[in-house]
């Protein structure tokens, strides 16, 4: 890993940019592939209507997200080469601890940012664009306002600059973030009911949680866990009943009323 790091550190800017745009394009393709596979699962319970093909605007926004995420990755690489971001390259037991810390920090920071994005003054400026798309497509995760992509990227770089983290924990976080993002934007619940009834999924967010957010945008603002929604009382009152299969799924008719 140290040899790879030395190679990356000495890359010219143009080569790093090409490498990172390929990386972010692969992440998008992996997300779409994962989402498509989940939608084909026979046990997946549909929560939202299947709206067919993605809109052209979604495709353009997803392409823009790849470009902007490449810029964020390039900025992070530059900060790393300058010593402003420190990465632990060794394989130790601290990888798991670093990953847990990153998830909790980003979960809380994203919750706060998401809550701010839904304020009446700020919502029309950016986040409303994401909410115009009904959750039923793998590409929806990437259909974001450019300002939101930059804001999340800046937050990520700020967290990395605040401490030293394992490079393997960063890779693990990228995978976890992609999986949660894709699962939350498919409009289906692929997890068996017996899993969702466990104490683990009382804390860890299920796909149902974010689907319900798109039905009722004032609720379920968290991403990876329910911790902050429970603490700040923004969890949908009916979430636990729906999570455990004791209540019906969100009605598709209620979705369209939120898209204006």
Describe the protein's architecture and organization.
The structure is a single chain. With 260 residues, the chain is mainly alpha-helical. The protein has a domain at 18-190. Helix content is 60%, strand content 3%. The chain has 13 helices and 4 strands. It has helices spanning 2-9, 13-39, 56-81, 94-117, 127-131, 146-162, 167-183, 193-196, 200-203, 207-215, 227-231, 239-243, 252-256; strands spanning 45-46, 87-88, 165-166, 188-189. The strands form 2 sheets. A two-stranded antiparallel sheet has the order 1-4. A two-stranded parallel sheet has the order 2-3. Mean pLDDT is 89; it is low at 252-260.
Give the topology, please.
Elements: H1 2-9, H2 13-39, E1 45-46, H3 56-81, E2 87-88, H4 94-117, H5 127-131, H6 146-162, E3 165-166, H7 167-183, E4 188-189, H8 193-196, H9 200-203, H10 207-215, H11 227-231, H12 239-243, H13 252-256
Parallel strand pairs: 2-3
Antiparallel strand pairs: 1-4
Helix pairs in contact: 2-3, 2-7, 3-6, 4-6, 4-7
Return the average pLDDT rounded to an integer: 89
Oligomeric status: single chain
Q: What is the spatial order of strands in the main beta sheet? A: 1-4
Strand content: under 5%
The helix content is: 55-70%
Number of helices: 13
Reported for the largest beta sheet, the result is:
2 strands, antiparallel
Structural class: mainly alpha
Q: State the end-to-end CA separation.
A: 49 Å
Overview in brief:
The protein has 260 residues and is mainly alpha-helical. It has helices at 2-9, 13-39, 56-81, 94-117, 127-131, 146-162, 167-183, 193-196, 200-203, 207-215, 227-231, 239-243, 252-256, and strands at 45-46, 87-88, 165-166, 188-189. It has a two-stranded antiparallel sheet with strand order 1-4. A two-stranded parallel sheet has the order 2-3.
């Amino acid at each position: 890993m140290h040899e790879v790091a030395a190679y990356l550190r000495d890359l010219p800017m143009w080569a790093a940019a090409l490498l990172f745009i390929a990386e972010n394009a692969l992440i998008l393709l992996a997300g779409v592939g994962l989402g498509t596979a989940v939608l084909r699962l026979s046990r997946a319970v549909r929560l939202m209507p299947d709206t067919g093909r993605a809109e052209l605007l979604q495709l353009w926004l997803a392409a823009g997200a790849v470009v902007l995420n490449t810029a964020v990755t390039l900025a992070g690489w530059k900060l790393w080469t300058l010593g402003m971001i420190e990465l632990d390259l060794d394989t130790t037991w601290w990888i798991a601890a670093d990953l847990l810390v990153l998830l909790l920090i980003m979960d809380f920071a994203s919750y706060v940012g998401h809550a701010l994005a839904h304020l009446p003054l700020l919502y029309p400026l950016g986040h409303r664009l994401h909410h115009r798309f009904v959750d039923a497509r793998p590409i929806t995760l990437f259909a974001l306002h450019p300002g939101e992509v930059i804001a999340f990227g800046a937050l990520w770089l700020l967290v990395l600059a605040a401490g030293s983290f394992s490079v393997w924990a960063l890779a693990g976080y990228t995978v976890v973030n992609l999986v949660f993002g894709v699962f939350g934007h498919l409009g289906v619940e692929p997890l068996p009911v017996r899993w969702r009834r466990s104490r683990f999924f009382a804390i860890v967010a299920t796909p149902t949680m974010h689907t319900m957010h798109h039905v009722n945008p004032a609720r379920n603002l968290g991403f990876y866990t329910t911790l902050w929604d429970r603490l700040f009382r923004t969890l949908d009152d009916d979430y636990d009943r729906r999570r455990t299969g004791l209540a019906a799924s969100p009605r598709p008719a209620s979705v369209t009323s939120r898209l204006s």
